[in-house]
Design brief:
heterodimer, A: 344 residues, alpha+beta, Ubiquitin-like (UB roll), Fumarate Reductase Iron-sulfur Protein, Chain B, domain 2, five-stranded mixed sheet, two-stranded antiparallel ribbon, globular, B: 567 residues, alpha/beta, FAD/NAD(P)-binding domain, Flavocytochrome C3, Chain A, domain 1, 2 domains, 21 strands, binds flavin-adenine dinucleotide, binds iron/sulfur cluster, binds FE2/S2 (inorganic) cluster
Amino acid sequence: MTVSTDQHKEGKKEVTFRVFRFNPQVDSKPYFDDYTIPVERGVTVLRSLNYIKEHIDGSVSFRAFCQAGICGSCGMRVNGLSQLACTTQVWDVLAKSREPGIIKVEPLRNLPLIKDLIVDMDPLVGKMVHYSNWVDSTMPEAQMGKKEFLISEEEFLRYDKATDCILCASCVSECSILRANKEYVSPAVLLKSYRMNVDSRDASHDQRLAELVKDHGVWDCTHCYRCQESCVKSIPIMDAIHGIREDAIESRGKHDTSGSKHAEAFMTDIEKKGKLIEATLPIRTNGVVWTLQNLLPMAMKMIMKRRTPPPPPLVKSVKGIKIFRAMFKEMTEHVKQDHKSHNK
Amino acid sequence: MKPFDIVIVGGGGAGLYAAMEAMKTNPALNIAVLSKVYPNRSHTSAAQGGANAALGNKAKDDTVEMHIFDTIKGGDYLADQDAVDVLCSEAPKIIRELENMGTPWSRMEDNTIAQRPFGGAGRPRCCYCSDKTGHTILQTLYEQCLKKGVIFFNEYFALNLSVSGSRSNGLIAMNMKTGKVEAFQAKTVILATGGYAKMYWNRSSNAAGNTGDGQAIAYRAGIPLKDMEFVQFHPTGLRKSGLLVTEGARGEGGYLLNKDGERFMSRYAPEKMELGPRDLVSRSLETEILQGRGFDSPAGKYLHLDLTHLGADLIKSRLPQIREMSMNFEGVDPIEEPIPVRPTAHYSMGGIDTDNQTRTVMEGVYAAGECGCVSVHGANRLGGNSLLDILVFGRIAGRTAAEEAGKFTPGRISEAELAEQFEEIRGGMHPSGRYERYGELREELGQTLALNVGIFRESSLLQKGISDIAELKERFKKVRISDSSDVFNTNLMQVLELKNMLDLAETVAAGAYARQESRGSHTRIDFPVRDDANWHKHTLATLVKGDVTLGEKPVTMGRYELQERTY
Ligand SMILES: Cc1cc2nc3c(=O)[nH]c(=O)nc-3n(C[C@H](O)[C@H](O)[C@H](O)COP(=O)(O)OP(=O)(O)OC[C@H]3O[C@@H](n4cnc5c(N)ncnc54)[C@H](O)[C@@H]3O)c2cc1C
Ligand code: SF4
Ligand code: SF4
Ligand code: FES
């Protein structure tokens, strides 16, 4: 393979790949190695890494298999953002690079590091098992293959997007709760759990849900939207998380206490301390108004039903908090009013 | 440690179905699945199109018999007809079984599994889930295996069978996380490691790891490989990476153009134009390139797949995947510019010779999926038949191994044998004096195969290919592994894969040289017609004293007599 130019193309750029290195056999702590190579338009981060491995340093270690964005092997952080190396264009990353000409490549977060850009996926598989991420068919094994279940297009569409997930763990790496609590269920596992729960062929809905509402489960999510924003397949993961929560309230009743204990803390945090973890609400990326419009209605619904996400683990002040607090107050009043009049 | 009852090598569709079925057959058995990547990463996930089964949901008059005929004809009468019978008869049941276990098939209006037309099939019988069929099948199987508690050894690289005489003692594999070479003493071993088309490297649509490891392992153990010369080329691979641009692009009205801007398919298929059968279109592209009407680039000669006249709206709505791929991997937006393409090695029809129960000639060793060759695809596989093959024969392998495991008593795999294996793979770490670079050898292998053992074959080209491969094998002895670490040594893994590809390339070239006829995917310029009198038979490649030795095996007929294959 070459990363050389086509004559008719507009040339190449010198790019420095700052690669995270760690070999547990010899290194006591990680470090970075710089590799500068010429890269033409159309070349992906993965092809650049392959080039480095073949031409400069064969010991640079990373996973890759399909090279087409379908197997999920090559998840890594490129300039801080978790994504697939094989579908990420070097020139696109460069255009947004804070340090001109430099691309930083690091392993995914929130999974144990094995070597260089390789992390251990076993914890994620363990969680898939823990939350029964499979269809437990209502059809007895001996009957299988004889006739089809009849499934409507409408049902198919309920889990169509969720089955796009390639378990690349980008969302896992970006999840703000996982950074503080490694036992947290994980966005991809919530997504899969949801997909199973809305499948009419499945017989384990209730047990799965019972597990999901326990500690480290669906109520621990802070609605920070980072998983959805980073999903390499653009899957609306938050729909799944909301879906599970709503389902939990509906099928387990309003007085199921799991999750509700966090409500007070959350409210206090926003109102009194006037601080928010930047990761907790998607303000930074989506703006105050968007956050209020899209997120708070759900949060309010939760609060009214005594279900709110937990407080953020790390607290950092956010710009625009004044406007936010004012709007938040107004909205809380509004919802409370609504709620009262509704209860009459 | 107690020997395993069954060790399955490969976590693709074939391996996982085998594991599931073996556990169903006898839950008391001690079963392990070994895979060099996490099972859900396997190449089965790349299959977009679908899997064939005569369910009759779409075409009420479809029958298993028609599916059988299409398959036999598509394979240019080289498939074993009793095996094709098994494949097609089991198809409806196995597709429904997957459905019953949770595969999210797309649906028809009457809520049954949806089906669509596919090349070479007389009726629309290809069952699909949007454009992610293989992915969802693999997910379902992985999930069900986790549910059943199948024991996985993920990121283990299988090295060799341990053999005593005509019997296998099990498998020797390297744990990627530690670099240790470990023994898996086993009553039975199922090889399900997928295809070998990646030996054509960046002229292949396959994943980096489709390097034919299982076939090479069997070959080194003295098990014959069947019909290795049959490699299917897909007409439109991306120029740089070989990745597939699916037929959909031409289906929507895309043009194939040469450097003179001519729609050259008018010369080869004036009526069907771009939509002629796969092998014909591949040969047409290759002819244009060979006759100097291709574009030049450092990544090789290529042609244009032009979609620009279709307009931005249609491209965005109907071909979003293709647009994304072409932008990601060629840096070309098909709305503005034509996509650079050339034929790409796509599928390996050949593989480990097995009977209809997936048994190989070695006691206790079975093979299934693209790794095995029963043979159901003959000289040319039909689209949608491979996913079916891995399911049907994966299941048969699981069941047969589970039933037969009790018959075998494997010998012990000694420490000495492990040490020897370790030495063999690590010996190449630091060759003294001049050394060879892995990347260069692999590049040259891909090139000589594409050039000399590619779409068009001919005696002198093949001889060149054979001598190139021999030379590369010689140079391989001096290859350097530049990572000296024990932990996740991907460089070592690449080198081991290259070794497997070199071993197999020899069998592909030898088979292609011997077969003096043109049949299915195998086109000899010097023998342009099918020669049933002399070549209506399988070739078998066996390793004897370090050399490829060719044998033959008759084709099982019984259903359809030989006919000329015309469409
Ligand atoms: C782009 C593309 C599109 C396709 N589309 C279709 C389609 O639409 N319809 C259709 O029917 N077919 C299609 N095919 C073909 C089909 O996908 C494959 O033939 C099939 O999936 C092979 O499945 P398998 O289980 O045999 O092997 P794979 O899925 O390739 O799995 C092989 C397994 O073996 C493991 N393995 C390999 N070597 C080792 C080793 N040394 N040690 C340990 N483990 C090892 C791997 O980790 C992997 O788990 C397509 C193929 C390609 C390339
Ligand atoms: S919304 Fe935030 S906390 Fe919740 S799963 Fe996604 S990333 Fe994690
Ligand atoms: S949900 Fe998206 S980001 Fe997360 S693992 Fe699946 S595909 Fe990757
Ligand atoms: S290598 Fe498969 S997703 Fe990137």
